[in-house]
Amino acid sequence: xxxxxxxxxxxxxxRNVADFPKPGIQFKDITPVLADARLFAGAIDLLTExxxxxxxxxxxxxxxxxxxxxxxxxxxxxxxxxxVRKKGKLPYKTIEQDYALEYGTATVAMHVxxxxxxxxxxxxxxxxxxxxxxxxxxxxxxxxxxxxxxxSFLIELKFLNGREKLKDYPVRxxxxx
Length: 177
Ligand code: AMP
Description:
The protein has five helices and nine strands, in the order H-E-E-H-H-E-H-E-E-E-E-H-E-E. By secondary structure, the chain is of the alpha/beta class.
């Protein structure tokens, strides 16, 4: 078997893009991780290593980069995949949750029948910044009476204290800035 991928290798592949999408933001570009077969598979191995297949019922992924990791993790864990999308994108009946942005608010949505009560859920996004998006997604999971086993991120921007909004759940991130 090839050497397992380390978080340090993933960190080395993440590309920092200054002033995107607006001045003052340093965007963490994960596309070089995705483009490298070994690193992509290794990232999924790391995100799922705490769980045996069959112990998670659904991996919930957050629009849009979270889908990439959550879908692959779901296959690995023999779990279903459930998308949390930006408002207005899901075709069937939804539940919605607002959350605060720096200026104004945003809304995420999930199908009303996406999770069964008591379902064991792993919630995944690519990056934890202020935590507003993940906390809103977690609130949707709770409203369907499913149980969040862990909230996992590839990247955490620790200085933004996003974990504080996720205090009710175990939170794990692979690469911390
Ligand atoms: P937040 O709600 O502040 O935790 O923001 C998290 C969401 O915004 C995630 O879905 C990320 O994909 C995205 N995001 C926030 N900041 C960055 C960043 N510096 N680089 C890449 N994506 C980011």
